[in-house]
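Researcher: We're teaching a course module on how sequence relates to structure. For the next exercise, students receive a sequence and then see the predicted structure as tokens, so they can try to spot secondary structure elements on their own. Here is the exercise chain.
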Amino acid sequence: MEQRRISMSDITLGQPLQWDVTDASGNLLLKRGQVIQREQQIDTLISRGMFIDGDRNGGGSKAPAAATLREPPSILRMINLAEKRLERLQFNLGNEPDIQGKFLEVANALQFATTLNRDIAMATILLNQDSGHYPVRHCVDTAIVSILIARGMGKSKEETTVIAAAALTMNLGMLREQEQFQARQEPLAEPDRQAIHAHPEQTVKLLRDVGVTNQDWLNYILLHHENENGSGYPFGKTGAEMPDNAKIIAIADRYCARVSDRNYRKPMLPNAALRDILIVDKENIDQRMAKSLINELGVYPCGTFVRLENGEVGVVTAKGSTTTAPIVHALLGPRGAPLSFPIKRDSSKSLLAIREVIHAENAAVRFSMQQLWGSEAIL
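Model: And here is the predicted structure for the students to work with:
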């Protein structure tokens, strides 16, 4: 009887199991149809359980695919679960067996989530910033953007997984320092900058020490802060000396850092962050990567708060016919009154074009992602 090890993308909290689950010896752990309610159960199944083919799954030759769940899985829950699992791995590096495999599982889970609904995955970067500690969440955000760019460039699933794993682990060498930075109100001092400049090499050493052997993965981390013109760190290499996959992580990292809220620095508006990368960082980044970033995110990424020409305020919820004309769901009417329900708007139409991008606090509207994307964005 064939067995397949459980991955995070196979299970959704609150959804019935589509398989009997056994341990490696064939002992039944959970029966098909049972509902998992706690994240700790998923951790247990990942470490002990296997999906199995054969009689216990109704006699079929293959276990049903994850996509055949009775209801669409929540992308938001999947990403939050991946973030929490990543946090446990990051803070327990020396105590986790097969740490390389477990990081790859998280990377694959994020790949699966972006495949199911890229718009929700992208929107979590802007609308889900309170989901966890900044150092962990930033790595997840960077992995999501890296996955989208890599996929848009035609990278294979296997190569994209390694890129995502590198993004998830890129800052391990300054993990605790990042938490301290986030708690401060004042700008970073010179010793802080020295720690930042040392973190690529420190991260690679840490990962090697705990058993990460994939040299491409380690190389992407080592070089993700180098610049096209040789002004980056830690080695001052030029773009010609950097692999494209390190450049993917680099530009994703820059974008996600700019739009994140930190105590010592206010977030940039998403379109301003993209413009800053394209103009201010022009000499530092590969223009092919900049083009790919815009192609995948659009000028107004999902989750951006906007005011339309008719005065309505809403949130970008999907890519539109062009990179400058996304789909928007209006939440406030022209006079600022909340609408009874979100109204879909095509911003390619002149009266519904985007007039301006606004900060979330200036939008003065309360909503859940579920209201905009349905059950795929339920918490």
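Model: If you want an answer key for the exercise: Strands lie at 3-5, 21-23, 28-30, 49-52, 305-308, 313-322, 325-332, 338-346, 354-357. The longest strand covers residues 313-322.
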